[in-house]
Automatic annotation (TrEMBL):
Pathway this chain belongs to: Secondary metabolite biosynthesis
Keyword tags: Acyltransferase, Signal, Transferase
Signal peptide boundaries: 1-15
Protein name, UniProt field: Uncharacterized protein
Transferase is among the record's keywords: yes
Single GO molecular function: acyltransferase activity
Family to which the UniProt record says this protein belongs: Belongs to the plant acyltransferase family.
InterPro entries attached to this UniProt entry: CAT-like_dom_sf, Sec_Metabolite_Acyltrans
Length: 598
């Protein structure tokens, strides 16, 4: 395995120093088992002759890389590290490019965008297509979208103001100096995706349930191109890198497209709007691209203001939380957090599992549980996994089910569900489950879960929650309300089925040729056949989040369960093998009979 590396020396007074560093790198190239080529500024016109599969640009230097038989590698060069070596020249160029008030659009990041739980998360959507796609068309159309109206907010540069608040500055026109997105392309078109050591592992439809092993999430990280991008929000701010990254891996019979960004940019439903609008631009239908709302105005805070002033349609007013009577006080909450932190210190890092449920099983669930959604049944199934994993002979523990919901579907007086919105609108609902409930039938858990969601997502309830959230933020506090028993096991669930990435993306205009028509026989050209969501937590305090031990995502055609029961001792030990090993090895998966009883 070889890496072809070319470094374009900076111009200006710092060039000599940089060239010397590059020469030292060249002299040590053998330790990296790579070929290193140093290109001077005068050789810029010859850059295209350098062997490469991708190119990442930064003002003052360019890094071109190609790794044979592999997509990316974080072990050789970090381009952010090189850019940080020369802050003076880079900062001057940034100032020249961005500080002219006549060409800058200044956009705020709203309070919910800046929450620590949002600020510390990086998201990457890795999408497999059963088509060979034109990478340049994808790049050009996405860049074009970010030039339309307030869509340019997503292509701007994140900065921290003097007040410490994050904001985004966008130029009137993007270009080579200030691209709207970071773009990388791995051209592996001389080989099949099935010959690639990473991309070949992307799941395919099966007749049987499937559980990915413990490395399932990290193994696909190279496909996102993140190894060559800033790793934290501070890195993005310091280097003024584009927050949105597009990485395309081209094979002879398929394409993998990865879109990555810090969560402060938008939530999953904002990402859906981005994907569908990107598809419109690709198809030459710019006039149908919806305007991006919420780019400058915090629609949620405005909704709270209007309701308190009696200006909301229908006179809707904020209400006290329906679970206020069992909200944990400061002492009880501190006790719970300390218990969870102590448990976490004794356990290994959380591991991700991807669980695939075949269409036949999901269809049967939909037919036999008409009054209960499939998503609710699957959530109940995971809760049961935690409850039945309790150490024998102790009874199943109480569980506090914390579920993410999105305000855009529950504030009809302020937003419409189908609007393109540029802000994070996620809030949490809580479902306290007693020991008796967690040990009971799945239907009871599912109905209790749905009942609490319905009670807590009315418009008055949501306005009351938002009012208390903004009051806490205005007072300089991070809102963290927890409901239920102090001894409860918390479990986080995020049902993203309605995001429907599979239905939002239509890249048919970029199809060069079709791929495998046997395994993926039913998908229309230019549509996603598998989507893998990767989220990475980067904690500013370098401390583990006590609530990330048990977290599940529902993604529609693909069902992902992260860290199901990972940190609970399971008795007998064979049960652990059944829970975590691929179904081919264990023969069972999370008491599948519990699902099949419906």
């Amino acid at each position: 395995m070889k890496l072809h590396l070319a470094i374009l020396a900076t111009r200006g007074a710092v060039a000599a120093v940089f060239n010397q560093l590059c020469l030292e790198l060249c002299s040590n190239a053998k330790m990296f088992d790579c070929h290193t080529i140093l290109i001077s500024p005068g050789d810029c016109e010859n850059l295209d002759s350098v062997p490469r599969s991708g190119r990442l640009r930064s003002r003052g230097f360019c890094l071109v890389y190609q790794q044979e038989g592999c997509v990316g590698d974080s072990a050789v060069i970090d381009w952010v590290g090189f850019s940080a070596m020369f802050p003076f020249e880079r900062e001057k160029e940034k100032k020249d490019a961005m500080d002219d008030d006549s060409i800058i659009y200044a956009y705020p990041l709203h309070p919910l965008d800046r929450l620590s739980g949002t600020r510390n998360i990086f998201v990457s959507w890795v999408m497999r297509f059963n088509d060979v796609l034109d990478a340049d068309k994808l790049h050009q159309s996405l860049s074009r979208l970010l030039e339309l109206g307030d869509w340019r907010k997503l292509g701007g540069r994140i900065r921290r103001g003097k007040d410490g608040k994050l904001k985004i500055h966008s130029p009137a026109q993007f270009g080579s100096l200030l691209p709207a997105i970071a773009f990388g392309h791995d051209d592996l078109s001389d080989s099949s995706i099935e010959q690639h050591r990473v991309a070949s592992l992307l799941p395919k439809p099966t007749r049987d349930p499937f559980i990915g092993d413990s490395s399932f999430n990290d193994v696909f990280r190279p496909l996102s191109g993140l190894a060559m991008m800033p790793q934290t929000l501070d890195d993005i701010i310091r280097t003024e890198a584009p927050p949105l990254s597009l990485h395309v891996s081209s094979f002879s019979d398929a394409t993998v497209v990865a879109l990555s960004y810090p969560h402060v940019l938008t939530d999953a439903f904002g990402l859906r709007s981005l994907l569908s609008s990107w598809s419109l631009v690709l198809a030459g239908r710019e006039t149908q691209v919806p305007a991006l709302r919420g780019a400058t105005t915090d629609l949620l805070r405005e909704a709270v203001r209007r309701s308190e002033a009696g200006e909301a349609p229908g006179g809707v007013r904020p209400e006290t939380h329906v679970l206020e009577s069992i909200r944990l006080g400061k002492l009880a909450k501190t006790k719970m957090l300390l218990r969870l932190a102590a448990e976490r210190m004794k356990k290994p890092e959380p591991q991700q599992r991807v669980i695939f449920l075949p269409e036949a099983l999901v269809t049967r669930l939909q037919q036999t549980t008409s009054s209960i959604s499939t998503g609710d049944i699957l959530v109940a199934w995971l809760v049961r996994g935690i409850a039945t994993a309790a150490v024998s002979p102790k009874p199943p523990p109480p569980v506090t089910l914390i579920s993410a919901a999105n305000a855009r579907f529950h504030l009809p007086s302020a937003v419409k569900p189908d609007e393109a919105l540029a802000q994070n609108m996620v809030f949490m609902t809580h479902t306290p489950l007693t020991r008796e409930q967690t040990a009971g039938p799945l239907e009871g858990i599912a109905r209790a879960f749905r009942s609490q969601i319905q009670a807590q997502t009315t418009e008055p309830q949501l306005l009351g929650l938002l009012r208390s959230t903004y009051r806490a933020l205005d007072a300089g506090q991070e809102p963290l309300d927890v409901y239920g028993e102090t001894s409860a096991v918390p479990m986080l669930v995020n049902d993203l089925t309605d995001v429907d990435v599979y239905g939002a993306v239509d890249f048919a205009p970029a199809v060069v040729k079709r791929g495998d028509t046997t395994t993926w026989a039913d998908n229309p050209p230019g549509t996603v056949v598998y989507c893998h969501l990767q989220s990475r937590l980067v904690n500013d305090q370098k401390m583990a989040n006590p609530f990330d031990n048990r977290f599940a995502l529902l993604l529609g055609q693909a069902f992902e369960a992260i860290d199901v029961c990972r940190d609970i001792k399971i008795h007998p030990p064979a049960r652990l093998m059944q829970l975590y090993q691929p179904v081919e090895a264990s023969g069972e998966i999370l008491d599948l009979e519990c699902l099949e009883q419906f």
